[in-house]
Amino acid sequence: MQISRYSAPEFDPYGDQRQTDTDDGWLAPVATAPLEASLSLPGSKSLTNRELVLAALADGPSVLRAPLWSRDSELMIEALRALGTGIEPVSGDGEYGPDLRITPAAELTGSTTIDCGLAGTVMRFLPPVAALALGPTTFDGDEYARKRPMSGVVEGLHGLAVDLDDDGRRTLPFTVHGTGRVAGGALEIDASASSQFVSALLLSAARFDAGLDLRHVGDRVPSAPHIEMTIATLAARGVEVRTPEAGRWIVEAGPIRAIDVDIEPDLSNAAPFLIAALVAGGTVAVTGWPAVTTQVGAQLIDLLPRFGAEVELDGDRLTVRGGGVDGGIRGVDLDLSEAGELAPNLVALAALANTPSRITGIGHIRHHETDRLAALATEINGLGGHVTELEDGLLVEPAPLRGGAWRAYADHRMATSGAILGLAVPGVVVDDIGTTSKTLPQFPQLWERLLA
Question: What is the tens place of the pLDDT at every residue in 255-271?
Fold first, then answer.
């Protein structure tokens, strides 16, 4: 089966988010035969939102080709527009929507409110941008967004003498009183709760009067590859980030070059589809796989064989072959400190394995869209599984699973994890499959066509 490009009479960035088969949610399809599927995926959320910020701060117009159209990217687009950036769709041959032309504002303006939704990239990347705008900018978001860690950004801006009013909470909501400039200079922050604290400051640093000499103090920074992604996107625009020692990043003041950028497919969003080959058996291929990338989803090439998959990369086509649950899925002992966003889908796979798994280095994902460790343990155990929370991970032991309700907690990775389990367990009902619109609006259609 070949999964073709997304098609509709007119492009709809949120696709068809119907709740099918039950009034209580989305009945996850069961795999009744080995798979033989090939698909392409929309652009990377992490790259799209970084490039949107850099394009808004650049020295001229930029075009993003094949960007992601999803709730997170649209929240970023609307936020940058509110600060005065010109952003408009332009014709392109992208499979999942139009390209984007970004025209920087002559002068960024505040006096606005930004809805962050549940997007960490919006709530963390944009306060330093708002500090470069004239006027107050208030940040708020979904209910759970107020629980997500923001201390590294808040304290970082305080350390740069930016007037930020948060009533001492170190969380949303808060107001940045921009003056049109940030002095910059030396700064220390604790980024052990999120690598996005570092990326947030680096993305705007070249526009600070004295650049930035940033030091991390505290435990190791999780998801370090995301910082490397930020450094690479800056380098492509002529901004050098020097790292004279671990945990220190230096950016000189200077222009951010306007360039046209091709956005890579989202490799983390490939995870549930590739995992499906292990659960259902057969093969699943993802096309457009980049030869060189900073995305943590690239680690799937090494991670999936540990569960028993055969993985082959031929040009830009990555193929995964698995034997299905009857053929045996191996348990694993993994440290996912660099790839925490893959953890929910891999934990779902581990719940179907025939030997125990210990997945650690992911304590920081308690502070993602939801407390993912507690959510995974609760939902898998609710289906008859045996998952124990550890200080920084999960112990997953084999247990027969049964159908039942699966709560997504407004978390796209939790929703896709429920779909993975539903391949092998009849009757899994995901309460809110529409939450996948955060990064992959077309997930329900692609998933069902995967099994067609």
Answer: 999 999 999 999 999 99
